[in-house]
Write a structure and sequence with these properties.
2-enoyl-CoA Hydratase, Chain A, domain 1, 6-stranded mixed β-sheet, 11 helices
């Protein structure tokens, strides 16, 4: 996989994407704090291959993506980009996965634990996650216009989907930073917690996801990815047909009975 992605890479670089596995959860950390976790080509190659490897591992049910303090990710390393990018090598090689928001499309749920600033490419990376939990130290900005480049990692698609077109335009045209509280109000992140509690809270949510049957989680994520951003009347019929196919082909009655009792007990404990 890494060899396939060598168009990103420089042989002089050291891998700084680290993985901590505590099955069924894996925590992937962008670990280049001296550069605020700015992404070089080699780091992008390593990040993609790491995500694909974890996605292919049936023991891993949830992936968490975070950065080494003080930043989540400052975006692409512009010096590296200028050194390695040219027209002849700009075409992405086949990875077996479609790339979206700088990340491959995964079957495994991906939670972003945003520990600090997520800027431009770093924001695109964050928006490739299923949802985001933010430290109170987190902030978010799109500086594409300020540095004179155009987004290619999903910014003009995902940002307006999450915060609305007018707020997305405000962020992209001004390049101003949005703090964690405002990002939560706008719908960019789901929760804001104290910095010291960020990983504990994210792991708590990851464990909740990991408790569900992985086949159900994967199918539900596919439904969201396919249907969520449509508003035409036909989409409701498609959801209903999708549900019927699942019930006919994959529904497990005994698992349903077991899950129902567990859910009732879990609901009582959360009240």
């Amino acid at each position: 996989m890494l060899r396939q992605l060598s168009y990103f890479a420089s042989a002089r670089e050291v891998t700084v994407i680290t993985t901590q596995r505590t099955e069924p959860i894996a925590v992937v950390t962008i670990d280049r704090p001296e550069a605020r976790n700015a992404l070089t080509g080699q780091m992008m190659a390593d990040l993609v291959s790491t995500m694909v490897e974890l996605d292919d591992d049936p023991a891993i049910r949830v992936i968490i993506l975070t950065g080494a303090d003080p930043a989540f990710c400052a975006g692409l390393d512009l010096k590296d980009l200028a050194r390695t990018y040219d027209e002849a090598t700009s075409k992405r090689p086949s990875t077996g996965r479609e790339i979206r928001s700088l990340l491959p499309i995964l079957d495994t749920p991906l939670i972003g634990a945003i520990n600090g600033p997520a800027v431009t490419g770093g924001l695109e990376l964050a928006m490739g996650c299923d949802f985001l939990i933010a430290s109170h130290r987190a902030s978010f900005a799109d500086t594409h216009a300020r540095v004179g480049v155009m987004p290619g990692g999903g910014m003009s698609i995902r940002l307006p989907q999450l915060v609305g077109i007018n707020r997305a335009r405000q962020m992209s045209l001004t390049g101003n930073f949005v703090d964690a509280g405002t990002a939560c109000e706008w719908g960019l992140v789901n929760e804001v917690v104290m910095h010291s509690a960020l990983m504990d809270r994210t792991l708590e949510l990851a464990r909740s996801i990991a408790e569900a049957p992985p086949e159900s989680i994967r199918e539900l994520r596919r439904m969201y990815a396919t249907l969520a951003h449509r508003s035409d009347p036909e989409v409701y019929r498609e959801e209903s047909a999708w549900s019927r196919r699942w019930m006919n082909e994959k529904f497990n009655a005994s698992q349903f009975e077991k899950s129902r009792d567990t859910i009732i007990e879990r609901g009582s404990s959360q009240q």
